[in-house]
Protein backbone atom coordinates (compact mmCIF):
# COMPACT_ATOMS: atom_id res chain seq x y z
CA UNK A 1 0.00 0.00 0.00
CA UNK A 2 1.18 3.53 -0.82
CA UNK A 3 0.02 6.50 1.28
CA UNK A 4 0.54 10.17 0.54
CA UNK A 5 -0.85 13.27 2.27
CA UNK A 6 -0.90 16.81 0.91
CA UNK A 7 -2.87 20.05 0.81
CA UNK A 8 -4.85 20.75 -2.36
CA UNK A 9 -3.47 23.81 -4.12
CA UNK A 10 -5.97 24.15 -6.99
CA UNK A 11 -9.68 24.76 -7.25
CA UNK A 12 -11.66 21.65 -8.15
CA UNK A 13 -15.09 21.36 -9.73
CA UNK A 14 -17.17 18.45 -11.01
CA UNK A 15 -15.48 18.50 -14.43
CA UNK A 16 -12.03 18.32 -12.83
CA UNK A 17 -13.18 15.49 -10.58
CA UNK A 18 -14.40 13.60 -13.68
CA UNK A 19 -10.89 13.93 -15.11
CA UNK A 20 -9.47 12.53 -11.88
CA UNK A 21 -11.87 9.57 -11.98
CA UNK A 22 -10.82 8.91 -15.58
CA UNK A 23 -7.14 9.03 -14.56
CA UNK A 24 -7.44 6.56 -11.67
CA UNK A 25 -9.85 4.24 -13.50
CA UNK A 26 -7.00 3.23 -15.80
CA UNK A 27 -5.40 1.33 -12.90
CA UNK A 28 -6.35 -1.98 -11.30
CA UNK A 29 -5.33 -0.83 -7.83
CA UNK A 30 -7.78 0.40 -5.25
CA UNK A 31 -7.52 4.18 -4.90
CA UNK A 32 -8.97 5.84 -1.82
CA UNK A 33 -9.15 9.48 -0.80
CA UNK A 34 -9.49 10.45 2.85
CA UNK A 35 -10.72 13.94 3.71
CA UNK A 36 -12.43 15.42 6.77
CA UNK A 37 -12.76 11.99 8.37
CA UNK A 38 -14.42 10.41 5.33
CA UNK A 39 -12.97 7.88 2.92
CA UNK A 40 -14.19 7.58 -0.67
CA UNK A 41 -13.24 5.55 -3.72
CA UNK A 42 -11.45 7.79 -6.21
CA UNK A 43 -12.98 5.81 -9.09
CA UNK A 44 -16.43 7.04 -8.05
CA UNK A 45 -17.51 10.48 -9.23
CA UNK A 46 -20.43 10.33 -6.80
CA UNK A 47 -18.10 9.51 -3.92
CA UNK A 48 -15.77 12.39 -4.77
CA UNK A 49 -18.67 14.81 -5.16
CA UNK A 50 -20.00 13.90 -1.71
CA UNK A 51 -16.77 15.11 -0.09
CA UNK A 52 -16.01 17.84 -2.70
CA UNK A 53 -12.39 18.68 -1.93
CA UNK A 54 -11.50 22.38 -2.09
CA UNK A 55 -8.26 24.31 -2.32
CA UNK A 56 -6.61 24.33 1.10
CA UNK A 57 -8.10 20.99 2.20
CA UNK A 58 -5.67 18.39 3.46
CA UNK A 59 -6.22 14.98 1.90
CA UNK A 60 -4.65 11.57 2.12
CA UNK A 61 -4.47 9.27 -0.91
CA UNK A 62 -4.02 5.51 -0.59
CA UNK A 63 -3.32 3.11 -3.41
CA UNK A 64 -3.22 -0.63 -2.98
CA UNK A 65 -2.80 -3.39 -5.53
CA UNK A 66 -0.85 -4.65 -8.50
CA UNK A 67 -0.03 -1.22 -9.99
CA UNK A 68 -0.23 0.88 -6.82
CA UNK A 69 3.04 2.72 -7.44
CA UNK A 70 2.06 3.75 -10.97
CA UNK A 71 -1.39 4.80 -9.74
CA UNK A 72 0.11 6.97 -7.01
CA UNK A 73 2.49 8.63 -9.49
CA UNK A 74 -0.40 9.39 -11.85
CA UNK A 75 -2.43 10.91 -9.00
CA UNK A 76 0.52 13.04 -7.90
CA UNK A 77 0.99 14.23 -11.49
CA UNK A 78 -2.71 14.99 -11.77
CA UNK A 79 -2.56 17.16 -8.67
CA UNK A 80 0.74 18.67 -10.00
CA UNK A 81 2.82 17.49 -7.04
What is the fold's blueprint, element by element?
Layout: E1 2-7, H1 14-24, E2 30-35, E3 38-41, H2 45-51, E4 58-64, H3 68-78
Antiparallel strand pairs: 1-4, 2-3, 2-4
Cα distance, first to last residue? 19 Å
Shape field: globular
Mean pLDDT: 94
Strands ordered across the widest β-sheet? 1-4-2-3
What letter string, H or E per element, gives the SSE order?
A: EHEEHEH
Beta-strand residue fraction:
25-35%
- Given helix and strand content, the structural type is alpha+beta
DSSP helix fraction: 25-40%
- Give the low-pLDDT segments: none
Number of helices: 3
Sheet with the most strands, sense and barrel status: 4 strands, antiparallel
Whole-number radius of gyration?
A: 11 Å
Structure summary, number of beta strands: 4
Pfam family, one: PTS-HPr
Organism: Ectobacillus funiculus
Domain HPr: 1-81
Protein name: HPr family phosphocarrier protein
Give structural notes:
- This protein has 81 residues and is of the alpha+beta class.
- It has three helices and four strands, in the order βαββαβα.
- Strand 2 (30-35) and strand 3 (38-41) form a beta hairpin.
- The longest helix has 11 residues, at 14-24.
What keyword list fits this structure?
81 residues, alpha+beta, 36% helix, 28% strand, 4 strands, 4-stranded antiparallel sheet, globular
Q: Brief overview, please?
A:
The chain is of the alpha+beta class and 81 residues long.
Amino acid sequence: MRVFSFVIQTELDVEKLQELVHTVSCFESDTLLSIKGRIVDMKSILGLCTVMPYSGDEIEVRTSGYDEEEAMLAIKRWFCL
